[in-house]
Amino acid sequence: MKVFWELGWFFKERKKQYTLGILLLLMVAFLGVLPPRIIGFVVDRISEGSLTPEYLATWLAILAGAALVMYVLRYIWRLLIFGSSIILARNLRAQLFQHFTQMSPAFYQKRRVGDLMAHATNDLQAVQQTAGAGVLTLVDSIATGGFVIAAMALTIDWKLTLIVLLPMPLMAYMTNYYGKLMHERFHGAQQAFSGLNDKTQESISGMKVIKTFGQEQQDIDDFKSLSERVVEENIRVARVDSLFDPTISAIIGICYFLAIGFGCYFVVNGEMTIGDLVAFTAYLGLLVWPMLAFGWLFNIVERGRASYDRIQALLAEPVDIDDREDAIDEEPSGDLVFSIEQFNFTGDERAALKDVHFTVKQGETLGIAGKTGSGKSAILRLLLREFDDYKGSILFGGIAIDSYKMQRLRQAIGYVPQDHFLFSTSIAGNIAFAQPNAGLREIQEAASLAHIHEDIENFTEGYETMVGERGVSLSGGQKQRISIARALLKEPELLILDDSLSAVDAKTEEAILQSLKTTRSGKTTIITSHRLSAIQHAHQILVMDKGTIAEIGSHEELMKKKGHYYEMYELQRLEALVEQGGEL
Amino acid sequence: MLAKETQKQQELTGRDQWIVFQRLLKYLAPHKKMLILALGLLILTVLGDVLGPLLIKIFIDDYLTPGSFPTGPIIGLAGAYLFIQTSNVIISYFQLLKFQEVALKIIQQLRIDAFAKVHGLGMRYFDQTPAGGIVSRVTNDTEAIKEMFVTVLIGFIQSTFLIVGVYIAMFFLNIRLALITLLLLPILGWIIYLYRKYSSVFYQDLRERLGQLNAKLSESIQGMGMIQAFGQETRLKDEFNKINDKHWQAGKRNIKIDGLLLRPAIDLVYALALIMLLSYFGITSFSNTVEVGVIYAFVTYIDRFFEPINQVMQRLSIFQQAIVAASRVFLLLDEQEKAPRQFGTAGEITNGEIEFRNVSFSYDGNKEVLKNISFKAKPGQTIALVGHTGSGKSSIINLLLRFYEFEKGEILIDGNSVKEYETDELRRKMGLVLQDPFLFYGTIASNIRLYDQTLTNDEVRKASEFVQANPFIEALPQGYNQQVTERGSTFSSGQRQLVAFARTMATDPKILVLDEATANIDTETEVAIQASLERMRRGRTTIAIAHRLSTIQDADLILVLHNGEIVEQGTHQQLLYQRGLYHKMYLLQNGIVE
């Protein structure tokens, strides 16, 4: 029940709705006591033969009135309580989203998308249930149960009430116990299902391989055996699930039996009338729901609490990179001075960068070469201020990058990542991602610079072609070039290409580099690449090795140095020479 | 594609839904025996439900009201009551279980059908349909149908039987009153009709909004790096909140419609039923005597009567969802995009001679991606295909391997059309190595063997040795039994490619097809890969698509493709000498500026 306390802030926020809603619930519960009582009265008069039309009419009118009022009240409390619960879900969801936008990439490296989604879907659902159905079952089971029992004990017979209620707690206990059993077995069924899901996913992704090896039938057989497991696990669930109804009707059966048995005894003794007995059994019927609800309540609340804790924990994750209080509200511009003594990725003992110092003059191009894991990406990620915890400083226009407002720093940077990520909107929408108001002409210009314009024109819907799950499937090279166009449209002070030409063929690479050269005069560009052809024209080239700068200089200087760069380059030339039989 | 599908769902008319429903019911046929058993049990439980109040009625009217309690009959009645209750509990347990079993079996069959269907589809289908969508059809949609069978259909059958049983009992007790209570049916029918009509629209809307909401959220989480790098947090937040708001409004509409037409409405009808009963008995009592037991029985019956209706109505939305889901599954099952047909008139492939004769091909029927392609590979030769992305290289392979059907021209293997061989024969004799070596969840050995259990451990090892994958596999802690996680993400691309090589070599194909098999390899493993490739090619006809020209310099024939046409052909040296497109590509790839 702690979760109700934890959600207290929300109940306070929606005090009016909840108070009124609960009040109406109580009224409904109270009115619900009337019909059986009225049946009892009428039956008594009938059995005595003393029923008058007036008496009948009065009570039936009351019954009809109560029913109508209940209908209206039930509608209203649903609106108030359930309506509030979905507001809670909406607000929490917005909070989560807001929080997500503030979390740094380090956070996203730790967490899987599926988990984060689970918080925003299943957990939210469970909390919404608690604030809606949870409140309802709590109030209703106590109120309806209370009123009905009171009506039974006070207006009919307290002894009989006690006797008949004896088996009821057993029902709450049993259903709750089944619930737990179900939960465990359901977990097994869920796992079998996700196994089947994974299998299907894999088969479809590996369809070409399966077809190539002609193993369709074997794969279908494998699927069959997995689906058999799903059936078995689900039958295990069904075995418990099928217990619910029979158990409930068994216990109710016992209650009825007790009620009739002992009730007769009281009727014969003259302590009760027959009408009382009929009313009493009708009340019994009304007790079933609160008892069940009580069993559910624990489930709902338990789930709700666990889910709310998870959501709270997520929201409590600190924002690790934030603007300073006196952050500069200006777009940075000027030389880049990168001076890092040491930087470690969180939880990694090896230094990702060590003693990396270099300067990029405004308007110059920096090329960074090196193997995977040599520190190329680490440099870029520090420039993007994805991490703050390094020894050293990074100056942009003479001021440390963490002194600028985040928003401003990012305005100055156009970033093309290695793993090109496009959004499921039109191609135009993707290119104009940072400038939603850009005109088609500007978009087309950026696309032309990235040498993707013609590809786009060839799609049936041109720039309006949808990208992603629902749209056209693009090749890796096309996605990369759209990512480049997206960054170019910004006309950023600093353009960063993180190995973003890898899926583009040599000719296109050359063309893109050429257009960068002509359009980005006066602006700084940083390119990392496996292929030296992409960086050899840079003003300055860094060769990274094991987190530190192995070599630095222009292509010509590095060639003269006859070091690592020279080797890499010569290897290519040597290959070329050998392949051409030595004549060049 | 998906967008199109959602539109289709909305257009599901009542008639369409009925057709889908009927088709679903056909899946019940193989389980006739089990169903009859379950229905038999159901009838027994309904009988018990109906008899219980009847016994109490006899007790009240014959013994309680007159106040005489002869021991024998009383014990008899009590015993009968307890017996009925007990057996009812036991029978209903088995009845519920049996129904669920049938439902689960049906879904299993549906799943297998869908999965098998997917395997029979041509590659074209997979190009046009996102993988996630297909997976959803096979698993999630069928799961939704399961819900319908388990909760709605079974509940519906139970309710129907119970209602019929209750009415029979009521008619038995009092025909006139039973006739009057028949009036309840059209009222309930009307409420159900209204609810179905409105809730189906509102509920569908809510589901769609939720779908949008989750899609937006999931995409934003995945693309958060980009969103932040481009400073678009606020815009995305606004967009998200707009969808969130719409979803909330849809939720509110659903609460309203549920509040108006679900339990509150049914309870109102229940009150009406009570009023009908009481007025009838009251008015009768003015002129005749009324047996209290009959009133008791009617009140109890009416009570029983409403609970299942409430439950079924609350689950109507599941029914709705299931029908939509089923229509999607059936759409898949009816998919016409079949894999190309094989005639099976030709025998074995013995030499591995390949010839393309004037082959033209188009994926969409408009734009030709291959134009009049002709070439010949003699047994044992290596033919290399080079060209830009989209030049038609992959299409040539796709046709040769019969992933796609072609109409114009002919592809011959050993002089017979490729269409004439059995699929199995083609698969056995042609080995394809893909650019992205796909590894399955399992072990290294299971990935080399795939489903071919006839391959001994020795043969698996030999295949790995042949492609020089053995050293790296042996070095793994578990060797050949090393776990391969999803898509083999713990191995480097080079290692994955070596495993894929071993997999292909284990089948000892006559013809080797390499689809940019070395494109994603890091330079360190490239040397090993190259050496393996060379050994693999020996004695086999090889068709190789190459991204790096350095990997195909010893090919017997290099075809240079451009816009679906062969623009140059010859050996490496000849092509370099021609100083044409190939020469240009070569220079550029090597960073040589003339």
UniProtKB/TrEMBL annotation, chain A:
Location(s) in or outside the cell: Cell membrane
Keyword Transmembrane carried by entry: yes
Domain ABC transmembrane type-1: 20-303
Signal peptide bounds: none
Source organism of this protein record: Planococcus wigleyi
PROSITE patterns: ABC_TM1F, ABC_TRANSPORTER_1, ABC_TRANSPORTER_2
Domain ABC transporter as annotated: residue spans: 338-571
One Pfam family in the UniProt entry: ABC_tran
Bilayer topology annotation: Multi-pass membrane protein
Protein name listed in UniProt: ATP-binding cassette domain-containing protein
InterPro entries xrefs: AAA+_ATPase, ABC1_TM_dom, ABC1_TM_sf, ABC_transporter-like_ATP-bd, ABC_transporter-like_CS, P-loop_NTPase, Type_1_exporter
GO molecular function list: ATP binding
Alphabetical keyword list: ATP-binding, Membrane, Nucleotide-binding, Transmembrane, Transmembrane helix
Cross-referenced Gene3D superfamilies: ABC transporter type 1, transmembrane domain, P-loop containing nucleotide triphosphate hydrolases
Transmembrane spans: 20-43, 55-77, 133-154, 160-178, 248-268, 280-301
The keyword Nucleotide-binding belongs to this UniProt entry's keyword annotation: yes
Broad class of the protein's primary localization: membrane
Automatic annotation (TrEMBL), chain B:
GO MF annotation, one: ATP binding
Gene3D superfamilies according to UniProt: ABC transporter type 1, transmembrane domain (1.20.1560.10), P-loop containing nucleotide triphosphate hydrolases (3.40.50.300)
Protein's name in the database: ABC transporter ATP-binding protein
Subcellular localization, as worded in the UniProt entry: Cell membrane
Keywords recorded for this protein, A-Z: ATP-binding, Membrane, Nucleotide-binding, Transmembrane, Transmembrane helix
A Pfam family annotated for this UniProt entry: ABC_tran
Residue stretches in coiled coil: none
Domain of life of the organism encoding this protein: Bacteria
UniProt domain ABC transporter: residue ranges: 354-588
Sequence intervals crossing the membrane: 35-60, 72-96, 149-169, 175-195, 260-283
Membrane topology: Multi-pass membrane protein
UniProt keyword Transmembrane helix, yes or no: yes
UniProt cross-references to InterPro entries, sorted A to Z: AAA+_ATPase, ABC1_TM_dom, ABC1_TM_sf, ABC_transporter-like_ATP-bd, ABC_transporter-like_CS, P-loop_NTPase, Type_1_exporter
Residue intervals of the ABC transmembrane type-1 domain: 36-321
UniProt source species: Planococcus wigleyi
